[in-house]
Amino acid sequence: MPAYAVLGAQWGDEGKGKIIDVLSRDADIVARFSGGNNAGHTVINEEGKFSFHIIPCGVFWPNTMNVIGNGVVVDPDVLLDEIDNLRERGHDISERLLVSERAHLIMPYHVALDNLSEAALGKEALGTTGKGIGPTYSDKAARTGIRAADLLDVDSLLPRLDGIIKHNNAIITTIYGGEPISLDDVFAKCKEWAERLGPFIAPVERIVHDALKANKNVLLEGAQGALLDLDHGTYPFVTSSNPTIGGACVGMGMHPRFISQIVGVFKAYCTRVGTGPFPTELSDETGEAIRELAQEFGVTTGRPRRVGWFDAVAAKFSTQINGYTSAVLTRLDVLDDFDPVKICTGYELDGEITTDFPGGVAALERCKPIYEEMSGWSSPTASATTIEELPREAREYVDRLQELIGCPIDVISTGPHRHETIRVRPLIDAVSA
Questions:
Q1: Are residues 141 and 87 located together in one domain of the fold?
Q2: What is the CATH number of the domain that holds 353?
Q3: Which residues form the domain of 415?
Q4: Can 231 be counted among the known catalytic residues?
Q5: What is d(CA 413, CA 60) in angstroms, rounded to the nearest whole number?
Q6: Is 281 exposed, middle or buried (0-12, 13-18, 19+ CB in 10 A)?
Q7: Is 41 a residue of the active site?
Q8: Rg of the chain over CA atoms, in angstroms?
Q9: Catalytic one among 21, 28, 41, 232?
Q10: Are residues 34 and 22 in the same domain?
Q11: Given Cys at both, which of 211, 266, 354, 387 links 216, Cβ 3.0 to 4.6 Å?
């Protein structure tokens, strides 16, 4: 009953898209379990570059079913646009994509509320993507959300929608001074979604369960990163869902015994989008050089990513809450020609040394990184496909990260293309060839 989870182990943007695409080759199902179109995954193959925000990254393998789980919040317009864009580029996935009937929908008033609340916060804004993610999860918790299954009986949705929109319009107009949302316009959208999205809506949780019982391979696709987790991340500068391993179980309706391996994807340095504490942030020429070299700009927002050295304190905490059985290291080639390279192995907090990741945002903001310096390397690692091709200093860097993370690094990505991958050890039995 093999389910394999691939999770972002830092603040997101670790390069999960490529890794999931590579591992999807032998997966029967690729399942997205959390977040919404605030996440961006990039896949590069022989046909070019593809950016996804909601569709799972297994769509390029013809025998792989791609499913969107109940833990995901879905903007139907974004999903339909991605389906159309894939079709225009020669990939009709209408028979290989399913959406959970229990997934909540991002409605127009959610997007309006997201942007109005961020604007009202001014300098204290959280730095959300403005996609309506937070308000949708808020409605889910308040039991006023709209689920995909509601589109299958759209006429019965109208009375509920009327009350929900009146409530949200009172907030939009009275508190924020915004323009009210039209019930007629939203209901017309729902009818359009019902017609176009209806064929994709299915009991995904049962389908995945049946596949696992039949010993098929299910790859659980994480979005965002562990340090943005609603419970365990740098709250309140976090996402509105649980991209950690617990979220995989809840967001796919599956029990933990199905999960045989948990893979954490780490970037060889750290990045973060938006506001919030970032102990190893580099606000100097080195940080700018890494950003430009790696083109560290958000897939979803286009915003420049903040850049810093690898934070092993945060990495150890990420391993603690997820129980990684193995790790993937991406973007190692970006560090070619940087000398020295640094790893944060502890924090100085109020005059004391700690190796714990603080739970309070104020304490984390006061943490000063304690660095261990290692020799850089001038020989390129880009496009390497075997561990023997790496220069000695790069191998020593990988070994040290592995020791600090607390689990083996089984795969190293040395470039954006599928073949630019070093398999140190088999990551998942089915794709070890």
A1: no
A2: 3.90.170.10
A3: 267-431
A4: no
A5: 19
A6: middle
A7: yes
A8: 22
A9: 41
A10: yes
A11: 211
